[in-house]
Amino acid sequence: MIPEDHPRYRSLVVRERLARCAQEGIVALEGLTAHGRGEAFDYLIGEETSPGALRAERIAAALLLSAEHAVISVNGNTAALAAGLIAGLQEASGAAVEVNLFHRTSERMAKITRLLEDHDVRVLSGVPERLLPLPHDRALCLRAGIGSADVVLVPLEDGDRCQALCGMGKKVIAIDLNPLSRTARSADLTIVDELTRAIPATTRFCHELDRTEAGALSEGFDNREFLQEAIRAIIWRLEHALD
């Protein structure tokens, strides 16, 4: 039992959940390393949503609402951390949800799909095809899902798939705590925020924006500004860590 008054209570609960999901085969063991790296960057941004991240989340909502066919791509870590939150974002945005994995087995696909559906997420099903120009199983996706999407939200992403999606002309929204990652630098829009803060904020903006506002917000932004703002915030915190 983790005492609720522990100063790192939330972080420890999340680690316990990921470890349990790894034992159940939902999260790949490599995903635990990825989570630890992300948590380190969350320390550096102060474990809070910055003004820049909040602006990016508002634009992300606008992109999802303005899309002809938006898809939320879900991997094991995302499902383990935020299955219920994905359901809320799907309902608010109208986006489809597709499971896409690097460490892909039919068993893992089924377990992650079941977890999402247990939280009322409507998960696309069908026969995957090798539609992305990648040499690994991230290339496998559904023609009616990621294959035909014009906007793809990719939380906790692999950089090479992000680049491949952008190269295919799709608008890519990334959620990535590391503003220096290949994913963050390749995406059309990067939300530098922790997943379980970013998704509810984006969901809220989906409810608040009308179609006219969404259309206006989805044009004319510069992703470099969001990355630079996050990097400046990290530098400031490092310089003032002992103040």
Give structural notes:
The chain is an alpha/beta fold and 243 residues long. The protein has one domain (51-239): 3-Layer(aba) Sandwich (Rossmann fold). The protein is 53% helix and 11% strand. The protein is built from ten helices and seven strands. Helix 7 links the parallel strand 6 (171-175) and strand 7 (189-191). Helix 3 (51-66) crosses helix 9 (211-217). The protein is globular and about 55 Å long. The model has no long low-confidence stretch (mean pLDDT 93).
- The total number of structural domains is 1
Query: What proportion of the residues form beta strands (DSSP E)?
Result: 5-15%
How large is the count of helical segments?
Answer: 10
- The CATH homologous superfamily is termed Phosphopantoate/pantothenate synthetase
Tell me what the CATH architecture is.
Answer: 3-Layer(aba) Sandwich
SS elements, strand count = 7
Would you tell me which CATH topology applies? Rossmann fold
Strand order of the largest sheet: 2-1-5-6-7
Helical residues, percent: 40-55%
Structural class: alpha/beta
- Any idea what the radius of gyration is? 17 Å
Provide mean pLDDT, rounded. Answer: 93
- Main sheet characteristics: 5 strands, parallel
CATH class (first level) name: Alpha Beta
Give the SSE map.
Layout lengths: L8 H15 L5 H16 L6 H16 L3 E5 L1 H18 L2 E4 L6 H13 L10 E2 L9 E2 L9 E5 L3 H9 L3 E5 L6 H5 L2 E3 L3 H14 L2 H7 L5 H17 L4
Parallel strand pairs: 1-2, 1-5, 5-6, 6-7
Antiparallel strand pairs: 3-4
Helix pairs in contact: 3-8, 3-9, 4-5, 4-8
